[in-house]
């Protein structure tokens, strides 16, 4: 099996972690459905940003486009200054595997597999030896407060602990930014607050974190908020602060 090739230029040191330039995303239909409509936004390194909007607003499409899981119909997506619109599928896979960390609402962990290996699998396609993968996983699990639970299986953990495993997996390859899609959606209020406190702590260390949510209270608590409605960027609190 061929491993993804990262046949692309080196990232630009001063470039934003991620930038959308006039991004449009349409899905076929009569008429076509416009999920994103000429969205432009820059997220600099070290920012913590909420993308908020009701169901059907386009926020999930925005996440998929930001993370190169889906290609825009128009416009361009740049990750650390690299224009992803000119990349082949192998290079896009390399971008996702090395520069984007994903945290999903449904966790997507392997049942029956120890937590340490669920996290270490985040380095599986990066050519890292198994021993080094486990060492990296152990370090990041300690960072999210799950060092004592690393040999437990996901089904032995609480919902909040399981989501922390997902965060650790997203961090293990030291990505340019983390995309968290409704990360508190399956958690109770106490676990949700604990997770958001973890994100705030990671942000304090210089991590770039984008949280996609429909929860206005979570969004308003973050340093910057992008409000999406009907595929358009309706409000950017960074712009309002200028």
Strand order of the largest sheet: 6-7-8-3-9-10
Main sheet record: 6 strands, mixed
Total of helices: 8
Q: Termini separation (Å)?
A: 50 Å
User: Which percent bin holds the helix content?
Assistant: 25-40%
The portion of residues forming beta strands comes to: 15-25%
Uncertain spans: 1-7
How would you spell out the order of helices and strands?
A: EEEHEEHEHHHEHEHEEH
Output the radius of gyration: 18 Å
The count of strands amounts to 10
- Nearest-integer average pLDDT: 90
Structural class: alpha/beta
The shape is globular
Structure characteristics:
single chain, alpha/beta, six-stranded mixed beta sheet
Would you write up a description of this structure?
The chain is built from eight helices and ten strands. The protein has 242 residues and is of the alpha/beta class. A six-stranded mixed beta sheet has the order 6-7-8-3-9-10, sandwiched between helices. A four-stranded antiparallel beta sheet has the order 2-1-4-5, with helices on one face. The model is unreliable at 1-7 (pLDDT under 50).
């Amino acid at each position: 099996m061929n491993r993804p090739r990262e046949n692309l230029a080196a990232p630009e040191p001063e470039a934003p972690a991620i930038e959308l330039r006039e991004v449009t995303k349409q899905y076929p239909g009569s008429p076509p459905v416009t999920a994103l409509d000429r969205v432009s936004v820059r997220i600099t390194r070290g920012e913590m940003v909420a993308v908020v909007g009701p169901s059907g607003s386009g926020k999930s499409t925005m996440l998929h486009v930001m993370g190169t899981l889906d290609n825009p119909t128009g416009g361009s997506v740049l990750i650390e200054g690299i224009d992803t619109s000119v990349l082949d599928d192998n290079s896009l896979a390399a971008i996702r595997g090395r520069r984007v960390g994903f945290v999903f609402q449904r966790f997507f962990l392997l049942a029956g597999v120890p937590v340490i290996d669920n996290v270490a699998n985040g380095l599986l396609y990066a050519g890292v030896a198994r021993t080094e993968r486990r060492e990296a996983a152990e370090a990041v699990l300690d960072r999210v407060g799950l060092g004592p639970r690393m040999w437990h299986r996901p089904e032995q953990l609480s919902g909040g602990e399981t989501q922390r495993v997902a965060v650790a997996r997203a961090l293990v390859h030291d990505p340019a930014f983390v995309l968290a899609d409704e990360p508190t959606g399956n958690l109770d209020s106490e676990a949700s607050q604990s997770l958001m406190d973890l994100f705030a702590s990671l942000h304090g260390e210089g991590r770039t974190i984008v949280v996609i949510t429909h929860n206005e209270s979570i969004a308003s608590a973050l340093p910057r908020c992008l409000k999406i409605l009907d595929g358009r960027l309706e409000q950017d609190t960074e712009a309002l602060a200028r």
